[in-house]
Amino acid sequence: MDPIMHKAHAADLVNAARIRAGLTWAGLAAAIGAAPVWTTAALLGQHPMTAAQAGVVVEMLGLGDDVAESLQQQPNRGSDPAVMSDPTIYRLMEAMSVYGPALKALIHEEFGDGIMSAINFKADVTRRADPDGDRVVITLDGKFLDYRW
Amino acid sequence: MDPIMHKAHAADLVNAARIRAGLTWAGLAAAIGAAPVWTTAALLGQHPMTAAQAGVVVEMLGLGDDVAESLQQQPNRGSDPAVMSDPTIYRLMEAMSVYGPALKALIHEEFGDGIMSAINFKADVTRRADPDGDRVVITLDGKFLDYRW
Amino acid sequence: MDPIMHKAHAADLVNAARIRAGLTWAGLAAAIGAAPVWTTAALLGQHPMTAAQAGVVVEMLGLGDDVAESLQQQPNRGSDPAVMSDPTIYRLMEAMSVYGPALKALIHEEFGDGIMSAINFKADVTRRADPDGDRVVITLDGKFLDYRW
Amino acid sequence: MDPIMHKAHAADLVNAARIRAGLTWAGLAAAIGAAPVWTTAALLGQHPMTAAQAGVVVEMLGLGDDVAESLQQQPNRGSDPAVMSDPTIYRLMEAMSVYGPALKALIHEEFGDGIMSAINFKADVTRRADPDGDRVVITLDGKFLDYRW
Amino acid sequence: MDPIMHKAHAADLVNAARIRAGLTWAGLAAAIGAAPVWTTAALLGQHPMTAAQAGVVVEMLGLGDDVAESLQQQPNRGSDPAVMSDPTIYRLMEAMSVYGPALKALIHEEFGDGIMSAINFKADVTRRADPDGDRVVITLDGKFLDYRW
Amino acid sequence: MDPIMHKAHAADLVNAARIRAGLTWAGLAAAIGAAPVWTTAALLGQHPMTAAQAGVVVEMLGLGDDVAESLQQQPNRGSDPAVMSDPTIYRLMEAMSVYGPALKALIHEEFGDGIMSAINFKADVTRRADPDGDRVVITLDGKFLDYRW
Amino acid sequence: MDPIMHKAHAADLVNAARIRAGLTWAGLAAAIGAAPVWTTAALLGQHPMTAAQAGVVVEMLGLGDDVAESLQQQPNRGSDPAVMSDPTIYRLMEAMSVYGPALKALIHEEFGDGIMSAINFKADVTRRADPDGDRVVITLDGKFLDYRW
Amino acid sequence: MDPIMHKAHAADLVNAARIRAGLTWAGLAAAIGAAPVWTTAALLGQHPMTAAQAGVVVEMLGLGDDVAESLQQQPNRGSDPAVMSDPTIYRLMEAMSVYGPALKALIHEEFGDGIMSAINFKADVTRRADPDGDRVVITLDGKFLDYRW
Amino acid sequence: MDPIMHKAHAADLVNAARIRAGLTWAGLAAAIGAAPVWTTAALLGQHPMTAAQAGVVVEMLGLGDDVAESLQQQPNRGSDPAVMSDPTIYRLMEAMSVYGPALKALIHEEFGDGIMSAINFKADVTRRADPDGDRVVITLDGKFLDYRW
Amino acid sequence: MDPIMHKAHAADLVNAARIRAGLTWAGLAAAIGAAPVWTTAALLGQHPMTAAQAGVVVEMLGLGDDVAESLQQQPNRGSDPAVMSDPTIYRLMEAMSVYGPALKALIHEEFGDGIMSAINFKADVTRRADPDGDRVVITLDGKFLDYRW
């Protein structure tokens, strides 16, 4: 009896196979008919996939059933703090440190006392052309949940 | 000679006067002709205002020149970690912990090696009606900066 | 213009007046018609009260309008880590450290991938008589939120 | 002479065998006649099992005596902080950060100076149907221990 | 309405008056008929006193009713980590770091799976004459609590 | 040339052999004629053993010379912070957090400015029968060392 | 007898007077004949000034002798970690996190085993015009110190 | 399918081969026609190389295609905090702690509100002869980015 | 009744008076007939002084009885971590991080299993002339304490 | 191509061979003609050795060329914080926490504003006979470096 492959190891194998096959995250997302951010997060270990989704991925990438089994497991979510200091990710954290209290104030002003759900939630990242340099546009879209006793 | 009023104290006074006068952050933003997230962040101490902007704010709120002087100063930016664990703000941090590596992967896939600037950057928060419950939509929009030696 | 009284100071005043008047948290909750855990949390600074609720409290306790104003403000929620190591509170944290992964596994088994909301949420604490020593029974009751993209 | 299998490794093997056999945590609990939260916690490494309990589990799951031996050992209890930031578990921690001081105040009001034991303690998690969405109900039930010199 | 005097401030006043009056902690303990460690801990803010005990203390020390009121309050227990690195206290922590796992193993061997209560608990510190230098003997005496579901 | 076996690995082997042979820590202590807390701490890696002591242990347990060699090495003392949050050990730490400043005050009152040595030190753990439930009694006994320049 | 004014308070007064007088850090540096980075660091509390330097500064800024006395004191050097996360400062830290090991490798390759002194050290910040946007050029210039026993 | 070699392992192999071949970091930089700091950082895992650059390196060093593949991957940037306390690197951090606020003030004075980019950025380290001991001169050169909404 | 003056405040007053009177730490030490490191540490709050020593100091410095009372109190010893990162102090810590394990190995080799006491301990700092630059020589001299059960 | 042996592994092998051969650190130091603290630190991984020194060591200890190669590499210096809490090392840290500010004050008084170098530095540990118990005498001897711009 082997334990189920750790999701971090499955992610390493998916990434290696993806690069060697010349495939993109967006292409994998299209193949399983899911959003790119969701699909990438799932393949990096943050969401469980269905058996069908996992099956498409391992077939496209020439990986084994052990990878497919791993991709379907319930994850422990969240990232190692060391990863969060990578500059590309850190800028997102810095933006929250600078603008978080302002976003909180405006959420309360518009919606009342509550939060934007991070569970009933989706995210997208797109390119917006700009003559001064193209821009990364990240959209965070979550259901408002009011504090309700 | 008094030191310049600390921005946290100015923010407390702005907030108290704003609430007692029945004004919104959005209303203050409209009065100075700036974006709501920028204006709220500036009044909470994260951006310097121009003398004209600060003057409009203190006149609307019946505050003194010491507040206006404070609002114009260069800040030390960032928020106390204790504030970042407020549930409304924490959900943003959690989303970055769950989706940050996926956003990084997709930024690299679309733009190459680089970051979304948090300096040449704007943010917005809006309400999107939804029959299952309205949604908070936060847009982060920053210039792509490639690692360029 | 004075800043709004800090919620920690309002809580100190409410607590002092409550003790000197011989009133209980449960009694204050009954007076405003709200649940005991909600009311106590609100008076300790974790929830905003309505003007009516705050008015009842300050009248019962002989406190001023500045306290009532403070009680109505939107809080930054959460407790100082130093407080969380008080033995009465720490036992709750220890229980989560010992049983948290089991509770997570059982939530997923019963409900699927998601969480118990801490926003659409209520809590209660009661006494249950037991010949071996009475027991504290804490109920946490939150809406299940499934990860839904 | 091999060292005794580490409980984390035993938990991985139990979980893998459980999933591949299509068994639930609740089913394993029923098989050994113990509560679901206790059983799940024990199989994840937080409680020692009796030889009889461990024997039933490894027979149901087709695992070896080395797993059974491991399940009977005295644990070092507690979870890695990284696990505690998983959103499903974090919501429990957040609830304690928001409501912990209120629960402490109400325990003292009802019982006097003391704690809810986390040792003479049991927990349960159930589903409560609700037209606005079913709810997770977690009950923490511990003996009151007064500070007694 | 003044808030109740903070227990740290009451402890500072008790200590100052005690020193200026030439009284010992042991003498205060004898006066209220309680154990020295309990009394000292209570006066330093870790236990609530009864009104009678607090009354004896403030009368002996010439302190006011505000101190007596403070001494009777329910504390948030525990010490600032900075205090725990004082060498006299640190040696106790170091002993636990070196011998804690051995004490745990022997508690389990003698009593089974459980803990020594820190609530139903008493402590004492005495001098034991020794020709090689007198010794500090600290006794920790707590009820065994077995893990009991 | 192999490195000397790490003391944590030796401790795992000692513990496994001890359990499989049905021996107690107290029994091993008696066999080498040393105190139970010292012996258990030494076998868990906190003290070096003499060659004779190590020889008795490995012979009783059927372990190899590599274990005996490891048991004789000078340790780096102290425990991983993760271990210190095990509830059985944590109660000892909590007691120090609650009573540490009181113990310090009483040590100074009785002995003057100094510490209880944690080096010229011994500890014991015993059971004391009590009709309300037997008690764990831990004695810490260290030479007083005065601050002496 | 008043204590000497804390350097952080002196820095606040210097900064307030500087802004109100319309003076620059560079102008203050020129007035005392010292480098801009050194002067600014000294006025912010990181270096002691001579009596002559401090006298020039307080006269230019209309501040009192208490400020001049403070500016001459030996500092405890270093900045609060909260300040180091300001984005303008953080980029310097991030550059060290990304390039620090490379700088170390090249220092060792060119100079041997040793360090760049941060004591026998000077720093400068200048503007370099660039058609793609002007650049900040920071020079760190410290004596090489070889590990020399 | 093997995962792609971890960049830390590739760096270890590059470094071992470089030393055994008697090559310098500067020599490798010259061979690929890139700056020494950039090249060293890239080979230590902080920048992706082009296939051509990686090919030159592995051929010079007699390493395999698996190393070349690793060197081309997008990194997670940043260094382990343990590495940052090496004295050679720590002096750079200390300089930022002592001079960071001064550099920030002078950047704002010369350029306005903004930062020196750490992305559109280059660094160099050179030797400057000095009769009192040669000096390490590190130049940090980044584009100024103004806070621009 | 005032609390006893905090030792940090007494140290600030001693230091201010010392500087204004043009006295040295060494001079104060000579006046009370104690070692310079001991005296300076005591005046900075790390040791209690006798009434006679405190009396000499406050008379030399023109300070009040409240300072003398404070200097005689039992301290909570140790320094704020922020102070330990001052470069002059940090070098001592760095030396311990680099040489600590070697010092430990040599202490064990020469003395056996034990420690250098930090209680029965004295320290000195002297200047040693050297043509390459004078040297700071710090001597740490503590009684060897063997682990003795 | 193998990576160069990690210095921690080389240190483990050196230590094992040293113990089995009955050699002392001091003996190894004498054999290579270097100071005992330097030699021990170098063999534990804190300094690079020359090829000649490394050659003598591996020949005396019967170790391989891979160890000799490792001993010659440039280290990343510093010790794991876990090691620093070993009691023998911790006493050194505690002494710095208690006496560090006093040593700093006396260094400034004797030498002016600057530091004791930890690079141009040597250390020694000796035994001093004392009728009350022999003493460990540690000498830290570093060049004074003044803050020199």
UniProtKB/TrEMBL annotation, chains A, B, C, D, E, F, G, H, I, J:
Gene3D superfamilies per the UniProt record, alphabetical: Cyanate lyase, C-terminal domain (3.30.1160.10), lambda repressor-like DNA-binding domains (1.10.260.40)
This protein's record includes keyword Lipid metabolism: no
Active site: 91, 94, 117
Annotated InterPro entries: Cyanase (IPR008076), Cyanate_lyase_C (IPR003712), Cyanate_lyase_C_sf (IPR036581), CYNS_N (IPR048564), Lambda_DNA-bd_dom_sf (IPR010982)
Enzyme Commission no: 4.2.1.104
SUPFAM superfamilies: Cyanase C-terminal domain, lambda repressor-like DNA-binding domains
Keywords of the record: Lyase
Keyword Lyase: yes
Cyanate lyase C-terminal domain location: 78-149
Enzyme class: lyase
One Pfam family here: CYNS_N
UniProt GO MF annotations: cyanate hydratase activity; DNA binding
Catalysed reactions listed for this entry: cyanate + hydrogencarbonate + 3 H(+) = NH4(+) + 2 CO2
Function recorded in the entry: Catalyzes the reaction of cyanate with bicarbonate to produce ammonia and carbon dioxide.
UniProt cross-references to NCBIfam families, sorted A to Z: cynS, PRK02866.1
Family affiliation: Belongs to the cyanase family.
Name of this protein: Cyanate hydratase
Native organism taxonomy: Bacteria, Bacillati, Actinomycetota, Actinomycetes, Micrococcales
Protein's gene: cynS
